[in-house]
Automatic annotation (TrEMBL), chain A:
GO terms for biological process: CUT catabolic process; DNA metabolic process; exonucleolytic trimming to generate mature 3'-end of 5.8S rRNA from tricistronic rRNA transcript (SSU-rRNA, 5.8S rRNA, LSU-rRNA); nuclear polyadenylation-dependent rRNA catabolic process; poly(A)-dependent snoRNA 3'-end processing; regulation of gene expression; TRAMP-dependent tRNA surveillance pathway; U4 snRNA 3'-end processing. Keywords: Acetylation, Cytoplasm, Exosome, Isopeptide bond, Nucleus, RNA-binding, rRNA processing, Ubl conjugation. InterPro entries: Exosome_RNA_bind1/RRP40/RRP4 (IPR026699), KH_dom_type_1 (IPR004088), KH_dom_type_1_sf (IPR036612), NA-bd_OB-fold (IPR012340), RRP40_KH-I (IPR049469), RRP40_N (IPR048541), Rrp40_S1 (IPR037319). It comes from Aquila chrysaetos chrysaetos. The lineage of its organism: Eukaryota, Metazoa, Chordata, Craniata, Vertebrata. It is found in: Cytoplasm; Nucleus, Nucleolus. GO terms for molecular function: RNA binding. Its main location: cytoplasm. This is Exosome complex component RRP40. Belongs to the RRP40 family. Gene3D superfamilies: 2.40.50.100, K Homology domain, type 1, Nucleic acid-binding proteins. The gene is PRXL2A. One of its GO terms (cellular component) is nucleolus. Pfam families: KH_6, RRP40_N_mamm, RRP40_S1. Component of the RNA exosome core complex (Exo-9), composed of EXOSC1, EXOSC2, EXOSC3, EXOSC4, EXOSC5, EXOSC6, EXOSC7, EXOSC8 and EXOSC9; within the complex interacts with EXOSC5 and EXOSC9. The catalytically inactive RNA exosome core complex (Exo-9) associates with the catalytic subunit EXOSC10/RRP6. Exo-9 may associate with DIS3 to form the nucleolar exosome complex, or DIS3L to form the cytoplasmic exosome complex. Exo-9 is formed by a hexameric base ring consisting of the heterodimers EXOSC4-EXOSC9, EXOSC5-EXOSC8 and EXOSC6-EXOSC7, and a cap ring consisting of EXOSC1, EXOSC2 and EXOSC3. Residues 16-89 form the Exosome complex component RRP40 N-terminal domain.
Length: 259, 241
């Protein structure tokens, strides 16, 4: 636990930090607290990246979320001096620009759909933000439909805006999610684990039954398998994965595939 | 035969007489407007002592007797009061005296078209920013008015590439110019499409006042993060060289 005055940041990596802790950074000789360096120059050498859960303050880094402190060393040849961030458990989603999420259509207001994404405000989605949509060719979206899209605008001052096309105008998997299937909510940490490349859980499940899966960064997962029973089995396994170890998961899957 | 009720110029000799005629309300006759406030025993408002109370909508006098000042409007050749307050009659050197109605001891300064106002941003949208108008010129207002800065009025050049989020944030103090008074329902319409208009004071996420570094960027002195704003240029008379 960091002391009230502040501990060195390197010493706290991998330990639990609480909001209000101050992490001291090694002092840099060329930094002057009084003068502000202006101009369009690039970030100075050895510049630190301050990730989620941390804020810069006068002494160093101020922790704003409780969790484990993580550190990544600087990339080879890069100008960045490494990154610090806090790994925390969270269920409430805060919209972030560029995140892919699953939204539920709650209202149609003129040219704009209102979507519930689990944040503090509803997101807006223009009907032109679909692939191949024109003023004459409107997408067939009804209230209650599920939409997989990404945030174009997401900040604390304005209502978030979503789009279902990427910057080049292609849908790349986004759009209206089809009929049937099952939507459920998990914590954000599990979503991040599932989205990691070569996730074991997904690989093991795909050995069991074939299924379709959509993961939203707002904690929502949509699953569809051939039958309702298979769908529900996959849903239960995914929900339980949060608290199961790898061994328990393998045992459960072995029992199911045996049946 | 009593003369029918008719228009009487107040102050004329027959005003009292006409007043009585109107007060009787002869059946069948078209009840024309009698002299304002006239009735048996009442004097015309503008003949009363100065700063006498005046209700809203009262017809004060005709445009031949005086000119309309602030708080009044003219209709059908007569001057009516548009405020409930005190009647004030000032005599001008040239021409007719000026009749005005004032609410408080000093008159409320209203933002006029073309006036530069100081306002505080209260909320932003992708299409416009809503502001509270605090000062008109250098005079503080007793009650704040609401204004709107539309997306196309933020800058003079490249209007379609403007992003409201990169120009203003809630809590910024902005210098703007009034371009329209708006309807009854809508707010004042403001514009910052000039070099000397825009954000004057802004706070960063750390809560520290930011320093402008260009016309579109401000930097926080504590965390050194740069934020986008539409910054107002300092007017030359305030620069110390």
């Amino acid at each position: 636990m960091a002391a009230g005055r502040g501990e060195a940041a390197e010493a706290c990596v991998g330990r639990v930090v609480l909001p209000g802790d101050v992490l001291l950074l090694p002092a840099r000789p060329d930094e002057d607290g009084e003068r502000l360096r202006l101009g369009a120059g690039a970030a100075p050498r050895g510049r630190l990246l301050c990730g989620p859960g941390l804020r810069r303050c006068v002494a160093g880094l101020l922790v704003t979320k409780c969790g484990l402190l993580r550190h990544r060393q600087a990339g080879g040849g890069g100008a960045a001096g490494g990154a610090y961030w806090v790994d925390s458990q969270q269920k409430r989603y805060v919209p972030v620009k560029g995140d892919h999420v699953i939204g539920i259509v709650t209202a149609k207001a003129g040219d704009v759909f209102k979507l519930d994404v689990g944040g503090s405000e509803q997101a807006s989605l223009s009907y032109l933000a679909f692939e191949g949509a024109t003023k004459r060719n409107r997408p067939n979206v009804q209230v209650g439909d599920l939409i997989y899209g990404q945030f174009l605008v997401a900040n604390k001052d304005m209502e978030p805006e979503m789009v279902c096309i990427d910057s080049s105008g292609r849908s790349s998997g986004m759009g209206i999610i089809g009929q049937d299937g099952f939507l459920f909510k998990v914590s954000l940490g599990l979503i991040r684990k599932l989205l990691a490349p070569k996730c074991e859980i997904i690989q093991e499940l795909s050995q069991l039954y074939p299924f379709e899966l959509v993961l939203g960064m707002n904690g929502r997962i949509w699953v569809k398998a051939k039958t309702v029973q298979q769908t529900l089995i996959i849903v239960n396994i995914l929900e339980a994965c949060e608290y199961m170890t790898a061994e328990q998961r393998k045992q459960a899957l072995a029992k199911l595939s045996g049946h | 035969m009593a003369p029918p009720a008719r228009y009487c110029v107040p102050g004329s000799a027959g005003s009292g007489h006409c007043g009585r005629g109107a007060g009787e309300g002869r059946p069948g006759a078209v009840r024309s407007l009698g002299p304002p406030g006239a009735g048996p025993g009442r004097t015309a408002p503008w003949q009363r002592r100065p700063l006498s109370p005046c209700p809203l909508g009262e017809r004060l006098c005709s445009t031949e007797e005086a000119t309309a000042g602030s708080g009044t409007y003219t209709r059908h050749g007569f001057i009516f009061s548009s405020l409930a307050g005190c009647l004030e009659k000032r005599s001008e050197d040239s021409g007719l005296p000026v009749v005005s109605v004032v609410r408080d001891a000093e008159s409320q300064l209203l933002p006029d078209v073309g006036a530069v106002v100081t306002c505080k941003v209260c909320s932003i949208n992708s299409r416009f920013a809503k502001v509270h108008i605090l000062y008109v010129g250098s005079t503080p207002l007793k009650s704040t008015f609401r204004g709107t800065i539309r997306r196309e009025d933020i800058r003079a050049t490249e209007k379609d590439k403007v992003e409201v989020y990169k120009s203003f944030r809630p809590g910024d103090i902005v210098l703007a110019k009034v371009i329209s008074l708006g309807d009854a329902q809508s707010n004042y319409l403001l514009s910052t499409a000039e070099n000397e208009l825009g954000v004057v004071v802004a706070r960063s996420e750390a809560g520290v006042q930011m320093v402008p570094i260009s016309w579109c960027e401000m930097q926080c002195p504590r965390t050194h993060t740069k934020d986008f704003r539409k910054v107002a240029r300092v007017q030359p008379q305030f620069l110390q060289t």
